[in-house]
Structure formats: C-alpha cells, structure tokens
C-alpha cells in the first residue's frame, strides 16, 4: 500500500464534536435547540439503519430528534401533510424524508413540499440554486463530506482536474458544483461516456459514485491521484462463511491503493461523513432561520 488512507470515520468524529460545540452555543447564547425531523416510509432495511443512526447521532450532538416511521402503504397526501406540519413547527429546523420512497409516493412532489429553509438534504430547487450561485445555505451532505476530506488531504484544490463518475442529483451534480467553487476543472462522466478509463486517467481527483462494486480499476488511475469512493455496495463474501456479505466501494481498493496517492476505504471513508454533514447542515438552517448567519 502506497496511498495515504483517508480516515473518514475519524474526520466525521471531529466534525461531530465541532457541530456539538455550535449546538451548545446556539442553546446557551441564543436559547435555540436545533431540531431535525426524519421521516421514513416503509421497511427498507438499509434505510432503517441509516435513519436509526441519524436519530442517534442527532441526540449525541445535543440536538432534538423527531423520528416519524410511517407504514409502507402511507398515501402521498399523508406524507405531504406531515411535511407541511413540520414546515410550520418552530422546534423543527431540518426535515429529511428518507429515500427511496414506496411507488405510490412521488419523491419530487415531496421535495417540492419541503420548506427550502429546512431542506437539510439540499434537494429543493431553491437550495440547489443557492448552492450553484454560492449563497449561504445547506450543501448536499455526501458531496460536502467528500469536499471536506479532499480539502483536508490536499489543501487547496485550485486548478486540479476532477473527474466525477456518476451524474445523480444526490452526488454527481452537486459534487461538480462544489468542486467548481474550489476552482477545479470538472468533468462529469457517466454510463455513456466514451473511453471512461482514459477520461479517469486525466484526473488528479477521482470521485466514484456509480453504485457498481469494484468498477474503477487501478490502471484507470493517474499515479498519485486522490480517490474518493462514494460507493457502498453489499456483495457476497463466501470467505466469511455461507450467506455472508461485505461492503465494498465502486473502486477496486485492493489494487488502487498501490497507485493512488490517497484513497478512502469502504467502509470508514465517505459513509460516516454524510450523517456528520447532515448534522452540520441542521446547525446551518437553524442559524439561518434565526437570522444568525
Ligand atoms: N437515501 C440515501 N441517502 C439519502 C440522503 O442523503 N437523503 C435522503 N433523504 N435519503 C437518502
């Protein structure tokens, strides 16, 4: 292994401690307890784990946590009614409706219903627009976490070539905006990109966000590149026993670690940063709602 291992777990711990400090100041100096409401519809096992972790960490940093677990057959109208109720509540500063949603609920309608002031995911058109033109507000959690790790690893990102693999609204597109604000030269590659390996080989920074286990190969990388692996893929692990699984990223870590200059592991890289950034965003929205920023 020649690459520096980027320890997202340790960085997220430090970030949560800083968030807890902000929460304490909001409480003691302004009488505000930031509150985060998380809504989950149905029983998707991965979502349940995420939501439980979100609620636990929200309380750990001193914020109020409001968790709504709705049955799988909840109507779209009922979810929208809950969102409107949360929009109006003064003790709620952040609203997150966990994706994926059951098929009877249009996720875009839910996004449109969330008050932009409380949009800690940075999903609403208003928050996305604010992020694009550089106005204060929350930033997309996973891309923000990636950016923090990059800055911590590389210092200034100015002038670097960044290749993002994946064009989702959740990661690829907002990641590109954040990196543009850092003065990177940004390429978004996707499933129709021609000769992906040669595009990736130009990159000083590679962000892999495709959801395909071990897709990015070591010989796609420019030696010394910084590699941020957003993928969290569960794959069979027969070596651990019958029916066992393990988490792997979108990058072939075992080989890439000998070519990259720095790389995030999976698990323990980007994953822990997402919730920490969600908590940081809730401090941001609580501060903006109360005109403290
Ligand atoms: N499902 C997986 N990741 C996320 C996220 O960041 N926000 C929401 N709302 N749902 C998700």
Molecular structure report:
The protein has 293 residues and is α/β, with parallel strands linked by helices. It folds into two domains: 31-115, Leucine Dehydrogenase, chain A, domain 1 (Rossmann fold, 3-Layer(aba) Sandwich), CATH 3.40.50; 141-271, 3-Layer(aba) Sandwich (Rossmann fold). 41% of the residues lie in helices and 16% in strands. The protein has helices at residues 8-30, 45-60, 76-88, 107-113, 125-133, 141-154, 172-181, 196-200, 253-256, 271-289; strands at residues 4-5, 35-41, 64-70, 94-97, 161-165, 185-189, 205-208, 226-229, 233-236, 245-248, 262-263. The protein has a six-stranded parallel β-sheet with strand order 1-11-8-7-5-6. A three-stranded parallel β-sheet has the order 3-2-4, with helices on both faces. The protein has a two-stranded antiparallel sheet with strand order 9-10. A hairpin with an 8-residue loop joins strand 9 and strand 10 (245-248). Helix 1 runs parallel beside helix 10 (271-289), helix 2 (45-60) packs across helix 10 and helix 6 crosses helix 10 (271-289). The longest helix has 23 residues, at 8-30. The chain starts with a strand and ends with a helix. Bound molecules: guanine. Guanine binds next to strand 4. Guanine (GUN) binds at residues 96-99, 121, 141.
Keywords:
3-stranded parallel sheet; binds guanine; Rossmann fold; alpha/beta; globular; 293 residues
The percent of residues in helical segments reads 40-55%
Order of helices and strands: EHEHEHEHHHEHEHEEEEHEH
Strand content: 15-25%
Quick check: average pLDDT?
98
* Unreliable residue runs: none
User: Which cofactor or ligand species appear?
Assistant: guanine
Task: Please give the CATH class of the largest domain.
Answer: Alpha Beta
Q: Any idea what the radius of gyration is?
A: 19 Å
Largest sheet: 6 strands, parallel
Strand order of the largest sheet: 1-11-8-7-5-6
């Amino acid at each position: 292994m020649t690459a520096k291992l980027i320890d997202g777990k340790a960085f997220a711990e430090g970030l949560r401690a800083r968030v807890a400090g902000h929460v304490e100041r909001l409480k003691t100096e302004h009488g505000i307890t930031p509150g985060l409401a998380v809504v989950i519809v149905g029983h998707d096992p991965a979502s349940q784990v995420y939501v439980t972790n979100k609620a636990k960490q929200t309380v750990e940093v001193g914020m109020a946590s409001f968790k709504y677990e709705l049955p799988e057959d909840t109507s779209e109208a009922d979810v929208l009614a809950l969102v409107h109720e949360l929009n109006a509540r003064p003790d709620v500063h952040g609203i997150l409706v966990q994706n994926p949603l059951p098929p009877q609920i249009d996720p875009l309608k839910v996004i449109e219903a969330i008050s932009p002031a409380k949009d800690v995911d940075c999903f609403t058109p208003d928050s996305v627009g604010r992020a694009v033109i550089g106005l204060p507000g929350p930033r997309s959690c996973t891309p923000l976490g990636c950016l923090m790790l990059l800055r911590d690893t590389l210092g200034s990102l100015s002038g670097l070539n960044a290749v993002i693999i994946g064009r989702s609204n959740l990661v690829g597109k907002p990641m590109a905006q954040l990196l543009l604000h850092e003065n990177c030269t940004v390429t978004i590659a996707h499933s129709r990109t021609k000769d992906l390996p040669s595009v990736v080989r130009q990159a000083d920074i590679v962000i892999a966000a495709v959801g395909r286990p071990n897709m990015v190969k070591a010989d796609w990388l420019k030696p010394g590149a910084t590699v941020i692996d957003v993928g969290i893929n569960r794959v069979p692990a027969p070596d651990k026993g019958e029916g066992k699984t393990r988490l792997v990223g979108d990058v072939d870590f075992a080989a890439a670690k000998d070519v990259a200059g720095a790389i995030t592991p999976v698990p323990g890289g980007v994953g822990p940063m997402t919730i920490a950034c969600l908590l940081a965003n809730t401090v941001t929205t609580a501060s903006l709602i109360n005109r403290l920023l």
